[in-house]
Design goal:
- The protein is of the alpha+beta class.
- The protein folds into two domains: 155 residues, no CATH class; 120 residues, no CATH class.
- 37% of the residues lie in helices and 11% in strands.
- It contains twelve helices and eleven strands.
- The strands form five sheets. It has a three-stranded antiparallel β-sheet with strand order 1-3-2.
- Strand 4 and strand 5 form a beta hairpin.
- The chain starts with a helix and ends in a 23-residue tail after the last helix.
- It binds zinc ion.
- Zinc ion binds next to strand 9 and helix 10.
Length: 311
Amino acid sequence: MKDIDLLTKFNRLTVWRRGGERAPHKPLLALYSLGKAVRDEKRLVEFEEVSKNLVRLLNDFGPERKNHRAEYPFWRMQKDGIWEVKSPDNPEWRLTSSGDVKKSELIRYNAFGGFTETVCHEVKKDPALLKKIVQTLLDDNFPPSIHEDILQAVGIDLAADAAVVQRRNPEFRNRVLRAYEYRCAICGFDIRIDHSPIGLEAAHIKWHTAGGPDEESNGLALCTLHHKLFDRGAFTLSNQLEVLVSDRANGTASFNDWLLKYHGKKLAAPQRATYQPDMVFRDWHVREVFRGEVRELPHTGTHPSSGYGYR
Ligand SMILES: [Zn+2]
């Protein structure tokens, strides 16, 4: 199978219904399964397992619906030439008038679904192609502001080198947010829609792309804004885990309200001491990411922490 064929097949999963109605079911199912392929997990997965995960993705990233039906994309994606459904019982599937199989049948016959062997093989051997497919599915179905949230949820890291797609532990986000009790460790930001935190991210202190591990001691729960400021080096952490703002970061009222106000203040502590940021990762951030020098504390001419030894 040539690259273009496979990419085209994935492109065709994106179908906006008339009137601009969103139909992200197949794209999300494909992204979920691509994450599994990246992590080398088993190819065929039980319907109930797929359903649980897909419904969660649809609740977070799909349109508001009374209930999301995972059985439709699970069955229909076979027609797109990339997916197969199998059952150990080899049943004669009874099709409904719309050509679907009922959820109860999928469960009764213990249906398994996943990409075909060819698709799995193609995407695993060609990271550049995989990256193109993932990016296209994201670009065609979701605004850029939520791409990162979706990638975290399905466990794919695209930020890496152009030709490499890294695996990422989809549990990292949950574990880090739980460690910090679902609040930004800097400002306490914690807006939710029902139970889903919005604009709250699991930041790697040592970047994942630089080999930073998916562990609590390399993670911080940060709001989108503080995550961005941290990754751009506007602030770092002292060896006492205080916020150290760069002398190159500046601004007026918002700079004071959102950043300078926290200068010299301690991060919120995670709920277990073992989740505290490891100094090895903090040292990497100081060395590789932080910009300029640490600001003096206003009015005192001193630095926030006597032994901050930030460099
Ligand atoms: Zn924040």
